[in-house]
Amino acid sequence: MTFKTAIAALSALWLATAAGAEELKLAVTTSFANSGLAEVLLPEIKKDTGIEVQLLVVGTGQALKLGEAGDVDAVLVHAKAAEEEFVGAGYATHRREIMYNDFVVVGPLADPAGTNVATSAMEAFALIEEAGAPFVSRGDDSGTHKAELKIWASAGIEPAGDWYRAVGQGMGAALNTAAGMDAYILSDRASWLNFENKAGLGLLFEGDPALFNQYAYLPVNPENQPHVKADAAKALEDWLVSDKAKGLIEGYKIGDQKLFHFNAEAM
């Protein structure tokens, strides 16, 4: 499934509401939406539970704000520290890990910064900054943006200057900008694999434990927001940690590459 058809399919899922189905609003990250996995999961969720999941596709920071305001019933995001703060503040009842993948460093195939010899993500970023090579940041308080900033901080670098461009956009738009600029970018693997406009970009660095990318489910706390559909959110959580969900998540591939690894545990 291509990037464009994935987005088109998601749009159709947002607009389609079956008669009699219970609706649940779920804020999800753009990286999850770009992966194409939602088109696999949502029809099965509806068939098995009767729940029509309406996705609000935003960055992690905005997803948590929607949950705090009670504008969604649950969130599925990937920024552990922010999620734990969200739960600690009482905005969610708990945090449940569902699946993980990883981030990758993408950049021009010519690799002017020499990131392909790096032994860590921190070193790869330091080489980019040293070379003054163009780097595109999502700059949107998303989970990917938070992960990127953490790597810069670990390298002792505060990125700034003409070489560093923060676009304030989702993963697909940021990748498009990187393709147009022949620039480096941090992407989740799923979005990169499902991205059509690769232009002269390639995957240059991967495999550092610092690039681990965990997704977690957080039901909005009904004590703060009595109108949220807590029962439906619980039913969705039960489905997401089920054997059926595990099979679908583990079986989802682009080409021969698996995009997500299921790691939900019993509670």
Describe what this molecule looks like in 3D.
It is a single chain. By secondary structure, the protein is an alpha/beta fold. 41% of the residues lie in helices and 24% in strands. It is built from eleven helices and twelve strands. Strands 1, 2, 3, 4, 5, 6, 7, 8, 9 and 12 form a ten-stranded mixed β-sheet that branches. A two-stranded antiparallel sheet has the order 10-11. It is globular, with a radius of gyration of 18 Å. The protein starts with a helix and ends in a 5-residue tail after the last strand. Residues 5-19 have low confidence and may be disordered.
**Sheet with the most strands?**
10 strands, mixed
User: Roughly what is the average pLDDT, rounded to an integer?
Assistant: 92
Helix fraction?
A: 40-55%
Radius of gyration: 18 Å
Distance N terminus to C terminus? Answer: 34 Å
Category from helices, strands and their pairing: alpha/beta
Shape: globular
- Taking pLDDT < 50 over at least 5 consecutive residues as the criterion, the unreliable ranges are 5-19
Number of helices: 11
Strand tally is 12
Query: SSE order in H/E notation?
Result: HEHHEHEHEHEHEHEHEEHHEEE
What portion of residues belong to β-strands? 15-25%
Short description:
The chain has helices spanning 3-15, 30-35, 37-49, 60-69, 80-88, 121-131, 143-154, 171-181, 189-193, 230-240, 243-251; strands at residues 22-29, 51-58, 74-77, 96-108, 135-137, 164-166, 184-188, 201-205, 212-219, 253-254, 257-258, 261-262. Strands 1, 2, 3, 4, 5, 6, 7, 8, 9 and 12 form a ten-stranded mixed sheet that branches. A two-stranded antiparallel sheet has the order 10-11. The protein has 267 residues and is α/β, with parallel strands linked by helices.
